[in-house]
Amino acid sequence: MYVELSVAGIPICGYYKYSWAERLVAFEFTRCNRRKPHSLIFIGGLSDGLGTVEYMADLVVALQNSEWSMLLLVLSSSYNGWGVGRLGKDIDEIAQCVQYVVIIGHSTGSQDVMHCPNPRPRYPVLDTEFEPLTRSPVNGAIIQAPVSDRENSPETMRELYCQAVTDAKRNTYKDGDTIETILPLSMTARIGYPSATAVSSRRFLSLASPGSPHQPDEDDLFSSDLNRFVPPRVDKQLLLKRMIIPNASHAPSDWDQAEPRRILVERVTEYLDEVTKTGWRF
């Protein structure tokens, strides 16, 4: 089913990709005059949804005359759903959509990108009836502004944060380990999470990853203490120059971010051109 609307002045054809699943929608950013053979799948971070990451509009404009369209997935973990979401479920939902695509993950969406080509995380309590999905090969992946949620915890709330970890460990599930528990909103709001977002004990432990760095949880992929070794042959300064966009914010969308957005769009389109030429896959 198609609907026509506009986000940031860009016409959108939005269509349901998950016709067999409830409340899951994909929006394709296109001029609606022709279908394109390749798709760049965008996965937002915590609390992101339709139109919340402004630099997407720049990417849409840059891809208008290419063979690539921008596709935004609104997953069950989008908006406030992240608090009770999990990466395995994200990957299942992404797998139902992707065919010949490159995936770009913003912020916590980078965790999904990193997990997509790997075996899906299993949850002994939540996946009692899990049946593995056949996932189409992903032709490329981009991570933008990956973060360590563990290292982002406020120092001023360290005592409360540790108490939340203790409570979450003690009461992760109830009713014979069949139902997830939710941390008190009064606690998660003081830690720094949105006051209206429910966060399950399991998801909080995944983000907080108290066993790191020796036993990192599935969400803890980008903390600074996880990989301290760099082979001598690697030019660290050159590597950083390739990876970092000067003066860019986490999601370059403010009035002073025009140049970082231009560089970001340039790098993404160059990468897509390379994938188009080589058909590269994970």
TrEMBL record:
It holds the Pfam family DUF1749. InterPro entries: AB_hydrolase_fold (IPR029058), SidJ (IPR013744). It comes from the Eukaryota. This is Alpha/Beta hydrolase protein. It comes from Aspergillus coremiiformis.
